[in-house]
Amino acid sequence: DGHQVETCADIPSAAAALASRAFDLVLTDLCLPDGGDGLALFRQSRETLGEEAPTFVILTAYGTVESAREALRSGVYD
What we know:
Blueprint: H1 11-20, E1 25-29, H2 38-49, E2 55-59, H3 65-74
Helix pairs in contact: 1-2
């Protein structure tokens, strides 16, 4: 459909990509293989990019009601 996709293996590479280019959407897991946290990446993005931060969708197989509430309160897209 003409979308360009970029994958990142860990939080540092994702943060570097977000800092260097504009993205419309970020899909991330809540619990990442490198021990990273998708919600922390979202917060960092909002902190550094402000209104220019992309929309985040955070997926997880380990979610709890509290982690979902925390994500929504932080501004993760519902």
